[in-house]
Amino acid sequence: MEPFRIHILGCGSAMPTLRHHPSSQVVEIREKLFMVDCGEGTQVQLRRAKIKFTKLQAVFITHLHGDHCLGLIGMLSTFGMLGRTAPLHIYAPQTLEALLQTQIAVFCPGLEYEVKFHAVETTQHQVIYEDRSLTIESIPLAHRLPCCGFLFREKPVLPHIRREMIDFYEIPVSQINNIKNGADWTTPEGEIVSNQRLTYPAAPPRSYAYCSDTRYLPHLHQLVQGVDTLYHEATYDQENESRAEMFAHSTAAQAAMVARDAKVGKLLLGHYSARYDDESVLLQEAKNIFPNSFLTDEGLVFDVK
């Protein structure tokens, strides 16, 4: 099975600490690399994770708070110094485009690769990226600035061929695609060999949803229903629920409620407030509602399956 992994580069919130970096992840899916958010220090974290700068093909920014985007211009500059030539695609709220153009003009004159900006309408749930193997959708969230999450979905693949059956019936290579697309095979003697005997099902498509930052949204589970892995911000514990509401964030319990109602496979918690020296209180709070919950931490890699 092709890899589908989440590399955690940063899982802290806005206040800098010595324990966590600001928000950033790399989604590795079918040999493609996509970054989600780019807080300060992200390019250093890329090096620590041994992720090749040249393989990153797009960056998705949820919103324009500094802990989610202030690392972007430095990373673009470094890509230029490393001799990047391939275009880099940026998906973000419209407001970032003019700011980014100004920063590039000031800090990266003569950049020898193209930065292609794609404005994301944060109030719409829609497909914003598509290729042969996956789609990426925007997920409207509710924060103090326009903000959205992102949903990565593999496309279904065709069934796999049973090579021993193909060889046994001496089926020509020219017929393989027809069989993958559901055709039966008729032997020279007139025997019909059903498609089910010639193939076995492909693995079901996998999905990953990234939701940060947002206040608790009772309807959010409908947009991430059944995803294999959900990352949901868990800035506070229940004792600080009023603070979460004030600053448009969520508690770990609220993140777990979304995971439970969406019937996801696994919940990843992150975007921790700097007030916590030990996030185990957040993990336990989430596990009480959704047992298959996990804390993210810099350097961890989670398989989506």
From TrEMBL:
The organism named in the record is: Hoylesella timonensis CRIS 5C-B1
Described function: Zinc phosphodiesterase, which displays some tRNA 3'-processing endonuclease activity. Probably involved in tRNA maturation, by removing a 3'-trailer from precursor tRNA.
Its Enzyme Commission number(s) read 3.1.26.11
Q: Where is the active site?
A: 67
The entry describes its oligomerization and partners as: Homodimer.
Q: Which cofactor names does the annotation list?
A: Zn(2+)
Keywords, in A-Z order: Endonuclease, Hydrolase, Metal-binding, Nuclease, tRNA processing, Zinc
Q: Which InterPro entries match?
A: RibonucZ/Hydroxyglut_hydro, RNase_Z/BN
Matching CDD domains: RNaseZ_ZiPD-like_MBL-fold
* Catalytic activity annotation: Endonucleolytic cleavage of RNA, removing extra 3' nucleotides from tRNA precursor, generating 3' termini of tRNAs. A 3'-hydroxy group is left at the tRNA terminus and a 5'-phosphoryl group is left at the trailer molecule
First and last residue of the signal peptide: none
Gene from which the chain derives: rnz
Instruction: Name the protein family.
Output: Belongs to the RNase Z family.
Q: What is this protein called?
A: Ribonuclease Z
Q: Where does Zn(2+) 2 bind?
A: 67-68, 213, 271
* Amino-acid positions noted as binding Zn(2+) 1 in the UniProt annotation, renumbered to this chain: 63, 65, 143, 213
Cite the Pfam families for this sequence: Anti-Pycsar_Apyc1 (PF23023)
